Amino acid sequence: MIGVVFQILRRAAILVAGLFVASIVVFAFMTVLPGDPAQVALGINATPELLAETRHAFGLDRPLPTQYLSWLGGVLHGDFGQSYVTGQAIGPQLVDRLGVTLWLVGAGMVVALVVAVPFGTLAAAWHRRAGGAVISGLSQLGIAVPAFLAGVLLVQVFAVQLRWLPSGGWTPPDVDAGEFLRGLVLPALSLGLVQGAVLTRFVRSAVLDTLGQDYLRTARSKGLRPFPALVRHGLRNASVPVVTVLGLQLTTLLIGAVVVERVFVLPGLGSMLLDAVSSRDLSTVQDIVLVLVVAVLLVNFLVDVLYVVIDPRLRAERRARG
Q1: For the chain, domain boundaries
Q2: Which of 17, 213, 261, 292 is the most buried (most CB within 10 A)?
Q3: What does the record list as coiled-coil region(s) (predicted)?
Q4: In this structure, are residues 239 and 310 in contact, taking their beta carbons and an 8 Å threshold?
Q5: In CATH, what is the architecture of 98-278?
Q6: What is the DSSP letter of 82?
Q7: Separation between Cα atoms, residue 98 and residue 184, nearest integer Å
Q8: What mean pLDDT, rounded, does the chain reach?
């Protein structure tokens, strides 16, 4: 138990170091982008005196290390600064938009798992049958379809022709839970079906590898049928490599949500990022990119922790190394 806690603390220290480095990279990248935020805020007809005053108000006339420390200190205290374009506080907008994106990504991941786990397992169990070939073919087709195209097709079928679901828009769950769920169905399907097709391939490969293990042959020799033996003894070991891919899929879902939010007119982080880029609001872009990077690093950290929880052999190996 002590060894597990030590490993988690070590990964947490690496996470903190990674977050610090990521903040430096994000800040440095934004400083080298062309354009003057003061000029963007005031327009092309601003006088040099007014530009100088605005740069001073934004803190852009200070040395870069001072700007970075001021920005990082504000972020650590929950203050993400103000938009260069609108002058509004960025933090409250980030919280509201992040909630929308998390709902979308979470629902998309649920859809992906509901698709990938049973169909990937069946594709492995039926790998020498026509059913397994059909599932593999459908997953390959799903991988080739972009999320935005899947969204357009779903809107055309279920919103335009059948009129079962809305084509876009967002209703907060605390306002109308029914409309919230109806509005979330198509975006979650367009995001989750494509990622579910990708994940199905990995589940199939992991389960196929598990099917050849000695302990499954032993279980079958004791009277268990192949599929119950796989479910009872094999899926846990097959889940270890799948967890790795699941972490990567979460990252992909975050990126895919940027486009899907545009297709379905959802007020999430992706829409906020695209609006900030189009208006050259670099302060907002910087904060959103940092939030996305932090989310990716946190997902990787959770994946590392899940390794130890899922597979006892990893705990034994780490104890032996220590």
Answers
A1: 98-278
A2: 261
A3: none
A4: yes
A5: Orthogonal Bundle (1.10)
A6: B
A7: 15
A8: 82
